[in-house]
UniProtKB/TrEMBL annotation:
CDD domains: NAT_SF
Organismal lineage: Eukaryota, Fungi, Dikarya, Basidiomycota, Agaricomycotina
UniProt-listed PANTHER family: GNAT FAMILY ACETYLTRANSFERASE, N-ACETYLTRANSFERASE DOMAIN-CONTAINING PROTEIN
Transmembrane segments: none
SUPFAM superfamilies reported in the protein's UniProt record: Acyl-CoA N-acyltransferases (Nat) (SSF55729)
InterPro entries per UniProt: Acyl_CoA_acyltransferase, Trichothecene_AcTrans
Name of the molecule in the record: N-acetyltransferase domain-containing protein
Protein source organism: Pholiota conissans
Amino acid sequence: MVDETPPVIETPYVRIATLEDVEGIVDVMCQAFKHDPVLNYLSNAPKLLDETSDPKHHNHRRIFLRFLLKASFLVDGRITVVVDPNASSANEGAPRERIVAAAYWLPPNKRLAVWMIPTIVRAGALAVVKVWGLKPKLLFQRMIFDYQETSHGQLHHAFKRKGTKKSIDDTWYLQMVGTDPEYQGRGLMSLLFREAYTHDPKSTYTLEATTSKSRDQYAHLGFEDCISINFGRGKADAQGLTAKGEKAVGLEIYGMIKVGTYFFFTISSSHRHHYNSIVVTRSTTIAPGKHRSASL
């Protein structure tokens, strides 16, 4: 007799996210992007976020990250997560499944645009405006024009300089990727990228690195540092915090592109044991639009 019981997965694996995963993903992103310069700038933050001493503003950041995730779902984004099936729980240390990393991939010609008012509202933009205390005009000026349009325009020109006939909008765009700090250094971000490349190996991928550290990480994953993008001068310092005068130098982020079908993956000896214990993927296929729900 053949035992048809599926094998028990004991190591982290990648799968497609569902709406039930929203809060778990937001938990990860809140920690991963706690001091992110772009989020500091968008929220008009006067100082670095400290969730212990300032739980109110930590919750405000959470509301924005929930909005961004829901918006990615609503434009048919391909949201993937790394799950640790054996994370300990508060219930006497019993194992439970825990989301420990996530990536929001927006397919070619699927972007959140300023004219998509119903989608933006449905994703929770009004809650963001309310808790951040910003005038809608200021919030969307920073999010759409200062950041998104500046980055898109400069990436567009960099893309054309490569001589490709395609538009920047024909690429897979990485809206966001993050790993729980407790799990950083284990190769989980690389796992998410490898899964994406396997899903669509012939496509071009684009992203913005919001720190020099993440820029270097993406370079190791096949991306080229195409262009330095500056914005927020006169409004914020290099950390995205509200500033005036000489300190208001603005932010520097990096537009990056991965072109072609070739991806060479290398593992340093110090991390090899992590990869040996990780399942590359356990995918769940979801037809386009199936993850959209009235609950959004």
